[in-house]
Amino acid sequence: MSLRESPFPNCFVEGLHAVSWGLILPCFWFLDRLIAVCMSTSLERTQRQEQECYLHPLKVFFGFILFLTLFLITAPLAFLGFLLWAPLQAARRPFSYYQEPPSRPTPAEEGERNLGFEAGANKATFGFATANLCLLPDGIARFNNLGHTQRRATAIGRSIVQGVNRPHIRIFVDSPSSCGTLSPSSSLLPGPSTTSPASYGATDPACQPPPQGVAQRGQAGPDDVPWEVSSLFPANVDILCLEEVFDKRAAVKLTNTLGPLFNHILYDVGVYACQPPGSCSSFKFFNSGLFLASRYPVLEAQYHCFPNGRGEDALAAKGLLSAKVLVGQNQKEKKLVGYFNCTHLHAPEGEGEIRCEQLNMLTKWIQEFQVTNSKPDEVVVFDVLSGDFNFDNCSPDDSLEQRHSLFEEYRDPCRAGRLYRSGTLLEQPTLYHEDVRTPENLQRTLEREDLRKQYISSPVALDGCPMVYPELGQPWVGRRIDYILYRESSISKHCRTVLDLWTQLAGLTDHIPVGLRLNVFLDSDTAQSE
User: Fold this and answer.
1) One GO term of the cellular component aspect (predicted)?
2) Could you give the C-alpha distances from 216 to 180, 389, 402, 477, in angstroms and in order?
3) Deepest in the core among 94, 221, 290, 499, taking most CB within 10 A?
4) pTM (whole model) above 0.90
């Protein structure tokens, strides 16, 4: 049974919600503009200096007076709207679902899709990507040195479409280990043995299991898998997980732009207002910010809110979104399904206990979701967990989370190899410097350690403990807080991974998106006779 698109049970409740939000929106927008007119990004300040513009103080003064006046005028209507809006949240499902009928693929496109299992073969390739976009209301996003949320949402959507629709270069890459041959790749991947001293990759977790504690800083071994730092969004992504898509209008823009590529989208994920005791920590002004786009039909979806949020993080309904997707059927007409989970953990530094509690919760919720929704006539071909975990594998302050048992259930392919050195969190004050402002420049910066350490966030020391970093003779490692993990299925005899960092969103967000291509090899009995 397909999911209902509207989050409300009937048209009447949906109509009441539209009326209530229509009363709230003008006041909310004027408050947003009031904050935005007083906050400038570093790019805007630089542009004013270059243009020798001295009228900005007047713009701020009159803009503040104007938007404050309009905010006060519309506040009574917003209050009435709020009195209607808040009770309706009890009847709201915690996500909206968009689906678009897929256009008929051309024969060439059919050959590039994951039809290997359906055709009786025992292998197929799945692509995943995750990115934190910081699409908050404009006034709040400016505290992260990012403005113009609606423009950025449009630009991000177009960038992803441009990357996916670029011409494909199909090559075959032979595995350097015994795991077999990789499926066709969409771009030329530099091997780990390149002559460039700036090359870095990741150890194949299927052939040489990585340590599950804090990452070792040794050199990568001979079993490195292909890796890529690309200035373009990968063309072979099947499921895309986005974080911090808090703004509703931005979510709609992304949905409309990505809909023709990813025909199944879950957006506006999370709860609002007050929730039953034990389900959420406090009143929720924002949703979870999670956004899931899939090429495969979504069979089931479930959301859980973390009940232990604290401080400013408690204002948003951060949690876990789990989805079960239909990949296809094998020769015996058994359904091929996959599980994909995305999350965004507690953000403030020095509060690792909260993040560990949330890791415990999501481990339990994932297990319950899969037990509840598994069926005997199905074959699971992938089980992936991704998102912004807000801890890394190099900071002493994050040592508690680094040792969590989650990493015994899900493999982190970046931990053992050189790719973990890059980091995925950009320093906000330098987002618009020339070295990281364009996709090409950010790509070059990631390939050079001397530049990475200027623009990628450094590890966080324990409170009150000075840290000398890096240690003598050790490489510099940036904060990698964005993850894509996968669990090897009992039916899979081999997995091969290809890791990606892509820089096409340079200047549009303060995170570097991460991609994973998972090449799944099934036992022949499972692929054909299951």
Assistant:
1) extracellular region
2) 27, 20, 12, 11
3) 290
4) no
Question: Given this model, what pLDDT does residue 329 score?
Answer: 80
Distance, first Cα to last Cα, the chain: 23
Nearest to 305 by CA among 292, 288, 290: 288
Q: What angle do CA 60, 62, 67 make, to 5 degrees?
A: 90
Residue among 344, 346, 404, 511 flagged as catalytic: 511
Look at phi and psi of residue 473 and say left if phi exceeds 0, alpha if psi is from -120 to 50, else beta. left
Query: Could you tell me the two tokens for 40?
Result: 């400038």
Count other C-beta atoms under 10 Å from residue 276's C-beta: 8
Helices marked H in 214-301: 248-258
In this prediction, residue 282 carries a pLDDT of: 82
Tell me phi and psi for residue 42, to 5 degrees. Answer: -65, -30
pLDDT in tens, 369-399: 999 999 988 889 999 999 999 999 888 899 8
- Reply yes or no on whether the pLDDT at 82 is more than 80: yes
* Spatial separation of the C-alpha atoms in residues 226 and 421, rounded to whole Å: 16
**Going edge to edge, which strands form the sheet with 123-132?**
96-99, 264-267, 291-294, 239-243, 123-132, 514-522, 492-502, 227-230
Catalytic residue list contains 344: no
Checking DSSP bridges between strand 378-388 and strand 335-344, what pairing results, if any? parallel
With a CB cutoff of 8 Å and minimum separation 6, the contacts of 204 are 177, 179, 223, 224, 225, 413, 496, 497
Query: Residue 171 — pLDDT band, cuts 50, 70, 90?
Result: very low
